[in-house]
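input
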Amino acid sequence: MSFSDDGNIETSDNDSEDESAEDLYLGNEQFENVDPVDYIAMAKEAVHLTLNNKFLESDALIRSNIMVHPLLSGAFAFNAACCAIVKFDDETVYKSRIRIKKIVSLIKRQFFNHVTTKYFAKTQLGDCYTYIGILYLFRTESRAYLRGGWYLRKAWKYYNSVYKTVNSTTFMNLKHLIDEERNLIRCGNACGYGLFHLCVSLVPTRILSLFEMFGLPGERETGLEELSLSHMNKQEPHSAISSFVLLWYYVFVQPYVTLTEFSRGVSNENEGLKLMAELSSKFHSSPFYAVFQVQMKRNSSNFSETLEICKQSIETFTGSREIQLLFVVQLGWTNLGLCLYKQAAEAFHKIYQESKWSHNFYLYLASICAAAENQKREANKLFGKLSSLKRKNSAEVHVFIVKRLALLKKIGLSAQVCQLLCLEVLYHWMILDIVPDSSLTQFLALAETFEAHPQLESLSCFIQGVIHRIRGNLDESEVMLLSARTPRHPERLTSSVSPYACLELVEIASQQKKFTQAKIYLLEARDNYQGYDFEQRLHITVYNYLNGIDRESDSDCS
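output
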């Protein structure tokens, strides 16, 4: 089974794409075998160099030793995957996928059938296919999800095989492996096995059903447990990878998918801080570590300090434009959370001009922020660049922008309208819950006095309901959210308000221990609406909330 160029599924006896991968990248380059090296220490150092944004140094360290051991081949593939994630332009992602496929061919040829390296080889093959799958999943398009799922299916075959072996009674009796190698195999596979489960658990529920048809499980708790196991073995090359994946989950992902303390936007701060402390000695100068540090500060509503760290980091990482832009993104969102529309517009416009990430989205953000600041000339200029945007792909962000452009064309451009649209994106990007109270006061005043257009009345009610919920005014929040759930002036272009109002009502009902009512709202959000903005994202949240509600109601009964 494979995919044709147009994305259709085809069946074949082998995966010719993998077999021919050697010819697709780096010309006639050959990897030379060299004298034996300390492959464990070298692989660990290479991973650490990659995580410290030293891609070229990591590449140079292991390039000539790549055929010594599968761990070094895997470190080389990890370097390629991280480079693609940081730059994330189509050309770099494509070349990285091809490079990883070349590593797959090398591992199969060099290590797979050797008695002392086959278990290492299986884990590294799983890692390679997982990296490729993740690069597809990041595109958040239906065809990309299918391609990603197909590569994850390949990864699962290898991970599950090793997982069964290391958990069997015969594993300790394999005479050709020493204890150190057994530990490396167990912890290395735990990293990949855990990352696999975590990734599959985070795909949209409609895609998850298809993944389940492929035979792909996605148990988040299992993933977190396995990643924690790998994280604990500090001598193993995968330990640092597991640590950063766990940190990514607790800081960035968890607020989107779990009902933590009955509040969206709240991360597991204690776990995040503990990991940050453990990683500080080896990765304090890492830009990835700094990105997590910025996010942790912002999650704790310390926006002023977040701005300072962003500015310092932009000056520190002058040698890497892509890394600098990561902090410019954070700068834009933090300024927007502080109602500094002009500064936010400048940051988002810089991203639009200098990066290849989600061009249209950052142009949209720059446009509404400029309009919110009443910079009419600049706003019209920016919106003019967006005006020719067509619905050429199914990515949720792209469809969202197309709808908002149609809405603005219908009701006209004004500072008040665009300020409300700024609050909308702050909500969907999980920032509204964590802005300082002074900003909430300004945002609430805006929503309460909004009278520009009846088409946005439900959105205004929704924002008021959310802010009241954040401040703990549950009665006021419920009134506004119920009004938003059944708007007087239904508007197709803002149809996401009703299902997301249901989601907010879930949190109010949960805080009041009304779990039956909470479940009713969840099912309504899941089953009664379709074709709205960020539908896949809401379905992921509903899926996880349903599990959380069941656990809460069970514990309450006991």
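quick obs: The radius of gyration is 24 Å.
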